[in-house]
Structures are given as C-alpha cells and as structure tokens.
Write a structure and sequence with these properties.
- Keywords: Membrane, Transmembrane, Transmembrane helix.
- This protein is about 80% helix and about 0% strand.
- The protein has about 525 residues and is mainly α.
- It starts with a helix and ends with a helix.
- The chain has a single domain, classed as MFS general substrate transporter like domains (Growth Hormone, Chain: A, Up-down Bundle), CATH 1.20.1250.20.
Amino acid sequence: MALDPVDLEAGCDEALRLLQGRATRRSLAVELSDAAWTSPTAGEAKGFSSFGGRICAYALALFIVTSFAGVCLEWLTRGQLYRTLVALLLIAECLTSATYTVVVPLSYDLATHFGQGSAFSGLMVSAPFAVYLLGALRARCVMISWNQMKVCRYALVAYGIYALSTALSAAAVHPPTFLSLSATLRVGLLLALRMSYGLVDSVGDVVQMMVVKVCPQAELGEIIVSIFAANALGFGVGPLLSGAIGEMVATSDVELRAGIPLIVLACLWAVLVMAFYHAIPHELGTAHMVSGKEDIQESVEDVDAAVSESCDLATSRQVIFWTGLAYAFLCAVLTSSLEAGTALVLERHFHLTAQSIGLLLGSAFCAAAPLTVMLSWALPAERPWPAWAAVPPLIATVLLFKGPYALLGLTELRLYAVLAADVVLFSIALCANGAVDAAALQHMAGGTKLYCRENYIIAAATLRAAGSFAGPPAIRILASYGEETGAVMQLAVVVLAFACAAAIKYLGAWLHDTEADLLAAQCRLKDKVVSQRE
C-alpha cells in the first residue's frame, strides 16, 4: 500500500511536535539517566538519578536547616543579650559561607560560559579572601579601641555591603536587557564584587569578640564550636540552594540559574541587617560584661606578679598562640579544597549536572553541621584527645584516593564514599578548630599586647581567609595533573593539622591544671596574709 506524501508529512510533523513536547517536560531524573547511559562511568552515578534519592537528600538538608533556624529562634526569644548576639552571629556565619559557596556547583559552567578555564573557576570561588587582610586590619582597629557605638555602625555597614554586593553580583551574572556588557567586563565585575566580601568579612570576628565579652566563660567553647558548625551549614546551604533553584527553574541558561540564588541571598542579607539594627546594644554596661579569669587573678592582693606568670606558662601561651594560627590556616586549606575538589570530581568523573552537584554537596555539608556539634560533645573538653581520634580523619583521607576503589573493585561506591569522607573530614576539622580557638582564647588575656585575644582572633581569621583563598585554586590546579595529586596534598594537610590540634590540646590541658593550682595557691596565700594582718 502506497503512502500518501501529505499523510506522511503530517505524521512527521505530529511526531516532531510530540518529541518537542516531551523534551520540554524532561525532569532532572531523566537528564541524569541520559547522562549515566552516555557516560563511561554510568554505573557509578546512576543510583542517584532516582526521584526518591533526591527527595531524601532534600528532606535531610531541610530538616537540618529547619532545626538550625529553630535553635536560633529559641535563643532570640530568651531575652538574654549574649544568646541574642550568638543567634544572629550564627545566622550571619551561615549566610556568609552560603554566599561564598553558592557559585561552587556552577563555577566551572560559568567559567566556560565566559571563556575561562578551571583555574578561573577556582579563583571565582576563593575571590572573597583575596583582600581579606585589608578588612582584617580595619577590624583590628575597631576591636583594640573598642567603642560600642562604632562597633554597631561597623557591623551594620559591613552586613549591608554583603546585601548590596550580592544583589549586584546577580546583575553581573545575568544583566538586565537594557545593559550591554561584554563578557570581559562582566567577569571583572563579578570578581571585584566577590572580592568586596573580603573587605568586610572580619565583621564576624568583631561580633565574635562582642560575644566573648558578654558570654559566660564556661559556655565559650560550646559557642565557638557552634559558630564553626554554622559555618559548615553555610557550606552546604550554598550549593543546595543553587541546585534546588536550578532544578525548579528547569532551564539550560547558566546565567539565570546562577543569578536567582544570588537574589535570594541578597534578600536574606537585607532581613539580617534589619535584625542586627534592632538587636545590637549601643552600649555594653557592666551588667552585660562577664568577668574573665584574668579579673579573678587581679583581685588577689599582695601576691608577686612573677608568681602568677612563670616562664613556662608564658612560653606555653605563646606556643598555643602560634600553633593555633598554623592550625587555622591548615583547616581552611582543607575545608575549602574539599568542596572545590569534590565538585570537580563529580563533574568530570561522574558527569553530573550542576543541580545534582549542588544537591549532593549541599546535603553532605549540611549533615556536617550537626555532626560537628556532636563530636564536640564526644571529645573531652579540657583533656588531651586520645590517640584513636587520629584514625577517622586518616581513613577518610584515604577514601579520597582513586586507587583503593580500583584495587578492591568498588568503583561503583566511590561517589558515596567520597561524599562521606568529605563530611567526616569537614566535621572533624571544624570541631577541632572550635576546640583550638576556645583553648587559645581561654588562655589569652585581653588588651594591646602581642599575645592577646584581639590579635589572636584577627590573625586566625586572616590565616583562615588565606587558606580559603589558596585551597580551591590549589586543588583544581593539582587535579589537572591527576586526582591522586590533589588527594596527596589533602593527606599532608590532615596530618599536619592533627599534629597542631593535638599539641594545643595537650598544652591547654597542662595550662588548665597549672593555672588552677596557681589560683588555689594564691587564694591560700591571700588568706594567710589576711589572717596575719588581723
């Protein structure tokens, strides 16, 4: 039977229309399935393409974020100044990390879209830390010559710059139609705006110093660990927000998928600025200030100052000061390289889309936040860590290498093992950072001396910024020579960081016991002097 050409043409048109309609309705699961079938590593990633897996990942991340918001809201409603400041600081730290990492899933796509390479994608992630030192010097001046009114003004302006720069970054990524901007100009604007974050990033350190002034010393360690946990949560919220919005928008326009999350973050920053405006006190009265350990020592009369500060104590404090700064740098290099390196592996090796990368990284690093807090409960606060504490980070680092999976024939499990290793390393590194900072702040005095709390906070934050700036480009440049090269760098960083943290915990425990004995001896001496006078 001969086919009518007219009917054949109509049938082809109808088939083409149906195919086009089907293409427009494709979901993320279908895209992932296609990527898996066309990829040489399909078997390693096809498990994540299920709808149920995505729902579970989103539900886990949403539960953690909601719990975090509930804790902050509960602290805000207590009416205690230090808890209000801590709650706002936790939200600000979470938003800061989210603002920095929201571009991670799309960094490589944006770089290629603008005609750049993988090195530029790493630079775009780490750009906020390029000029951090300039902002840190300004923050140190604010902290040393403390004036509560100036501190309030500084905090509001700094957080306002976050809101403005984030909104302008969205305009640079996806400019309005009436603006005709070249790709080179947009790249320059985006880098400049992201670098502007570094000029005001130290505002978190200034607010943290305000918290140190008003919070009970017994809760200082827990509060600092909570700050790092909020930072970890932000590391997950950024990619998660980018991936979720990219999936909801369902468009291949990389500019639109990158611009919408920035607009959402800009709105959240604006709300936070208003909350800080109503919450920060313009004066810190004596009722707000909490006396530290050094005030108790100063109240002991008729005691030679040399008795209370021996050469061994002073040397131990100096060692804690410098070792804590070294750990701050190593921790930042590790945590920033984990997210940037894993994102590159997921894109190059597993051929996942930006939405999938954002979902995986977001849910993984969100899970690191509560794990960080739970680790702080499990590890001893005033005692040295046991030797077995080094085993989990070393095992997790080995999972970053490609060789063990090929040797054991477990290449299909590599995707989940790498994410689990990231969560473990991230949580342990931040928990140890909180313990290190708490030990340093508890054994440092306030004032203008070299080894004082203000200098430690600023120096540690500056070195964290330097490490965060160096981590993403370093891991991506090393990855160009092979994935194993980047894993070797991360293994070396883990070993050095654990050695620094263990040394600080040992010295901190010795200082704690020695200072307690000295204080008891001083009290006995004071009682003896008073009894002799009577």
